[in-house]
């Protein structure tokens, strides 16, 4: 096998498939695994108990997929080229904000398909080999692996940052049973003295740089958390109804972030400019229908209405909003009803809404379009 020719082929294919970078990591993850485990034991992971399942596999890629000796790590930008202005949406009255990664089709499927295509191309060149692809789906330390593959550094906001492409990308891997030359350089941590992500997190969820208090993170609260959202955090959530991008939007490295022209990531059902009144009105079957193929479907209708109710409670009161809440109430789940009631009280008592802190600058990808 001519390794240089293979790497050059992977590079070309990666570009053609819409990846913004790739690198190769070794599989010795014991030390990182121990740090990870110690970290887990010291924090409250809330409802993410799946994080503890098969935890020992995280440090042992060859147990997760037998005979793994190298890991190919890829970054896939997701910020859709054709979407409304994110900052406008964050401040738009009576609209909900959906994280940019969730506007289109479920990234697990989109990314995995591309990794399978990549593996098929490698097979054409090297013959049969054993592999398995991963995207946010198993006990894999994706950020540590990407860091070791030279794709960036884990920043103070706990996300992988890249000096040439920011952080609005997903990570995915191919575990392989043959040796490839591992990355010999790693990116330098370039967060410097910047603390924008810590300062402007809406719920102040960072305990320290590099340390997220998971159960305060809006992404956790609106996606992973199953029950009632703690009342003291609700007014801080603003109009974010699925995930949160703020610790990336204020990160100066995102002035280099890439847009994706991948049609799979284009907004569906106008999720990039969704009226809260419309969103609370969807009954369960409408929600399931509209969210078919979207990562949002996974949270289910009750949590969706819960999130939308909180966002409505954080708006300026209007008859239309109160009417929408009252209409949704009778058919809502118990969980959603409790939040709808809270929202109605909030709208009657606007003094409860704290003034949000606004950073001087936001950074969104504008110019660099990654063709796929
Ligand atoms: C669980 C999880 C979450 C949880 C917890 C996140 C967290 N930071 O812990 C929640 C639901 C909150 C979440 C939110 C988001 N997530 Co998430 N998430 C994951 C998942 C499944 C596991 C991450 C993990 O293991 N976290 C647990 C802790 C232990 O890991 P850690 O932060 O690396 O912890 C280390 C550091 O904190 C460090 N540390 C601790 N103290 C200190 C001190 C110093 C000085 C230093 C240097 C280091 C250090 O040591 C710890 C142990 O190694 C990964 C996919 C995967 N399998 O890796 C995606 C993943 C990290 N998420 C992703 C995304 C996109 C998001 C969101 C942006 C989605 C959104 N828009 O709402 C937000 C971002 C919020 C944030 N700032 O993290 C992407 C990130 C891509 C990237 N560029 O890095 C990933 C990689 C999924 C993917 N395949 O693309 N996520």
List the helices and strands and how they pair.
Elements: H1 3-16, E1 21-25, H2 30-42, H3 61-64, E2 70-77, H4 86-91, E3 95-98, H5 107-126, E4 131-134, H6 142-148, E5 153-154, E6 160-161, E7 169-176, H7 196-200, E8 206-208, E9 211-212, H8 218-224, E10 240-242, H9 246-249, E11 259-260, E12 274-275, H10 276-281, H11 284-290, H12 300-313, H13 319-328, H14 334-348, E13 369-370
Bound molecules: cobalamin.
Structural class by SSE content? alpha+beta
The chain-level mean pLDDT equals 94
Tally of strands:
13
- What proportion of the residues is helical, as a percent range? 25-40%
Unreliable runs? none
Explain this structure.
Helices cover 35% and strands 13% of the residues. It has 372 residues and is α+β, with helices and mostly antiparallel strands. The strands form five sheets. The chain has a four-stranded antiparallel beta sheet, with helices on both faces. Strands 10-3-12 form a three-stranded mixed beta sheet. A hairpin with a 2-residue loop joins strand 8 (206-208) and strand 9 (211-212). Helix 1 (3-16) packs antiparallel against helix 5 (107-126), helix 12 runs parallel beside helix 14 (334-348) and helix 13 packs antiparallel against helix 14 (334-348). It is elongated and about 70 Å long. The structure holds cobalamin.
């Amino acid at each position: 096998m001519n390794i240089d020719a293979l790497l050059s082929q992977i590079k070309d294919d990666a570009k053609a498939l819409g990846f913004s970078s790739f690198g190769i990591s070794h599989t010795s993850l014991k030390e990182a695994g121990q740090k990870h485990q110690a970290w887990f034991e010291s924090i409250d992971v809330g409802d993410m108990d799946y994080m503890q399942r098969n935890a020992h596999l995280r440090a042992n890629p060859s147990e997760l997929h037998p005979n793994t000796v190298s890991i190919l790590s890829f970054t896939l930008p997701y910020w859709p080229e054709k979407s409304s202005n994110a900052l406008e949406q964050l401040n738009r009255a009576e609209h909900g904000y959906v994280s940019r990664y969730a506007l289109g089709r479920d990234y697990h499927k989109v990314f995995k398909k591309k990794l399978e295509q990549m593996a098929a191309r490698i097979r054409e060149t090297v013959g049969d080999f054993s592999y398995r692809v991963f995207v946010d789906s198993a006990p894999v330390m994706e950020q540590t692996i990407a860091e070791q593959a030279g794709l960036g550094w884990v920043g103070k906001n706990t996300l992988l940052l890249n000096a040439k492409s920011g952080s609005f990308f997903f990570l995915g891997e191919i575990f392989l049973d043959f040796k490839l030359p591992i990355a010999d350089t790693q990116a330098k941590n370039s967060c410097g003295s910047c603390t924008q992500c810590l300062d402007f997190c809406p719920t102040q969820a960072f305990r320290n740089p590099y340390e997220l208090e998971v159960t305060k993170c809006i992404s956790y609260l609106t996606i992973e958390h199953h029950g009632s959202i703690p009342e003291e955090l609700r007014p801080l959530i603003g109009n974010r109804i699925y995930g949160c991008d703020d610790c990336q939007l204020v990160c100066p490295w995102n002035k280099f972030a890439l847009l994706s022209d991948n049609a799979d990531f284009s907004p569906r059902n106008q999720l990039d400019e969704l009226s809260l009144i419309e969103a609370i009105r969807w009954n369960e079957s409408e929600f399931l229908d509209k969210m078919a193929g979207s990562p949002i479907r996974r949270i289910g209708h009750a949590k969706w209405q819960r999130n939308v109710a909180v966002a409505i409670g954080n708006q300026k009161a209007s008859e239309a909003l109160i009417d929408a809440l009252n209409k949704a109430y009778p058919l809502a789940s118990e969980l959603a009803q409790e939040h709808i009631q809270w929202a109605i009280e909030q709208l009657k008592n606007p003094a409860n809404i704290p003034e949000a802190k606004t950073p001087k600058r936001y950074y969104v990808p504008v110019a660099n379009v990654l063709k796929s």
